[in-house]
């Protein structure tokens, strides 16, 4: 006698997609990205660049020009050097530059523009430090440091 075996065909089941590892990744990745996004900040400094349209004859006025050289700073009035600040221990003397610019601002309080002229081999970080020094100064007021504006409209260019 022949036995008839009836094999039941198994229905092919669609496998479930295991999302556990992906969810674990998201649980770690999202807070990490949110935390690091807080620390990245972009600061934009608006600079005035010389234009070719200034063809009108101008009366000579006092201009603040800070020339950054390898040996130190030169402060010019637009035509001649009025002060030279040499490097101290192979570093730029930014506090002395700041003090001199505060004196100039005291003499010309309405003056808001200044030029920073840089030699070709000066590092970018030094340029930024000089621009920050020209822009403002920190003044101690009863134990609290206050930032005061000096020359906020800064132009940059090549040193003569």
From TrEMBL:
It is a single-pass membrane protein; Single-pass type II membrane protein. It comes from Candidatus Polarisedimenticola svalbardensis. GO terms for molecular function: transmembrane transporter activity. Belongs to the ExbD/TolR family. This is Biopolymer transporter ExbD. One of its GO terms (biological process) is protein transport. The keyword Protein transport applies. The keyword Nucleus does not apply. One of its GO terms (cellular component) is plasma membrane. Keywords: Cell membrane, Membrane, Protein transport, Transmembrane, Transmembrane helix, Transport. It comes from the Bacteria. Its main location: membrane. InterPro entries: ExbD. It holds the Pfam family ExbD.
């Amino acid at each position: 006698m022949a036995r008839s075996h009836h094999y039941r065909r198994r229905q092919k089941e669609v496998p479930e997609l295991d999302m556990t590892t992906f969810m674990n990744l998201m649980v770690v990745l999202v807070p990490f990205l949110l935390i690091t996004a807080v620390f990245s900040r972009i600061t934009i400094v608006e600079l005035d660049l010389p234009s070719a349209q200034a063809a009108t004859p101008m009366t000579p006025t006092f201009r603040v020009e800070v020339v950054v050289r390898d040996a130190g700073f030169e402060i010019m009035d637009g035509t001649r050097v009025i002060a030279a600040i040499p490097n101290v221990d192979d570093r730029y003397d930014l506090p002395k530059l700041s003090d001199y610019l505060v004196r100039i601002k005291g003499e010309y309080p309405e003056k808001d523009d200044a030029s920073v002229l840089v030699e070709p081999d000066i590092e970018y970080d030094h340029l930024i430090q000089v621009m920050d020094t020209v822009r403002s100064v920190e003044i101690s007021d009863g134990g609290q440091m206050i930032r005061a504006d000096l020359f906020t409209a800064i132009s940059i260019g090549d040193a003569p």
